[in-house]
Specification:
61% helix, flat, 92 residues, single chain, mainly alpha
Length: 92
Amino acid sequence: LHWKGKVFRISALKKRGTLQLSGALMDELEAIRARELETPELREQEHQQQLIMQQEARQRIAHLAEMRRKARDTGDEDDDDFDDVDTEYAPY
């Protein structure tokens, strides 16, 4: 990957390294926020990116809603309850 940034080795299960990771993330977010406060252009770029992401999310939600509607109308809904599978229980 040729990564040049920081690398964190963590285990959420064992709670190792997560404090350092979250601290570094917070430091970076604070640094970004400080740069945005100093530079109106950066603030505007972030605002534009947020608008784009919001529009993409709305489009995706609308697309998924349309797919669900079509599946419901055609009876092609994904049936996750597996009630079409017969199960036979027998004693050992």
